[in-house]
## 1
Amino acid sequence: MPFAYDDQNIFAKILRGEIPNDTVMETDHTLAFNDIRPQAPVHVLVIPKGPYVCHDHFAAEASDAELADFLRVTARIVAEAGISPGDGGAGYRTISNAGQDGVQEVPHYHLHILGGRPLGRMLPPA
Ligand code: AMP
């Protein structure tokens, strides 16, 4: 079944300028802003400007320019936050929740960048 994008989701409203956001970085294809309920000293959400629901939707249907820009913005945010292990930083985690089992709250694709403290194991024991 094809993905159905709900243009009333909160990130769509942010992209249309209907509600504010704390922007970290913006390009033609990508917006990054601080999470409103941060779970770590660095907690940035990176979203494509196009109407993609989740990671596999974005990966399958976005243009090469959108895909490349998204990843480069992510790397620039990590570098500017000083958390890249390639640059002496202590590291970070990226998470993308999708669908019901992934407990995705906002149905517009987003990547969480978390860092600035030890993050513990990726998942609690099953
Ligand atoms: P997810 O479960 O991956 O869909 O997470 C959605 C994230 O969006 C959560 O971490 C929320 O705190 C965050 N969030 C929801 N509304 C806003 C908002 N208006 N501005 C910034 N972050 C938000």
## 2
Amino acid sequence: MWVNRARSCVPAKTRLIKFMRLNLIFSADKCEEKHVAGRAAIVIDVLRATSVIISALANGAECVTPCKTVEEARALALSGRSGKILGGERRADKIPGFDCGNSPLEYTRERVGGKEIILTSSNGTKAVKAAAKADRLYIMALLNHSAVAEKVLSEGKDAVLVCAGTDGEFSLEDALCASLFINACAREAKNIILEDAALFAKAFGGHIINTNNNIYNLLRNSMHVSKLESLGYKADIEFCLKENVFDIIPELHGGKLFI
Ligand code: MLT
């Protein structure tokens, strides 16, 4: 179900890159400047903020501006040019008065083409803000993980994966996405130094790849999948758990995400 891992991110030959360190932070609340300084940060919130960002930009949005609070998002939407789209969630549901919620399926080409999206979510946009001091910041989800691995490997710079998690806690879907990325990098390049959390994720991802390719089955009892299913967001889960539908890589420039 929903697996498209066949599209390998890199050519068959193992790459020789300079020594590159890879680490992993399991929740936005644990991410401090010292973790991202001098590195590329790769922010992950599979359910659903980074899947929303990727989908909106793939559908022609001009940019996505991540905000930590609802108040900040409302103020930004009113400032400057008109026609911005205000999107996001609290407790998984659309915020009163906002144009869109946190479903990637809402961010269609008709709705977002050419528009700036102002987005706030409980954990995902918080993770972007927490990692913003990184040398570079990329957005990843299952929807684009091979493209991001390809880019990070081609740059060969130290990197840290920043999982959004949920309210300061570990989230299985984000860790799973990170572990697939780490396995792809470790498989394709020599000279990668995995720090402890990344080593742990590599073992977890290796187990998944070798034993069970069905991501939904792995996640079906997880907190976030159960919560979204109980609230009626099953279609979002199906979409967000698809692998490598897009090859775009949103990147942060001046507080806004562009491709
Ligand atoms: C978040 O940022 O916490 C999530 O995207 C929540 C959600 O699934 O809507």
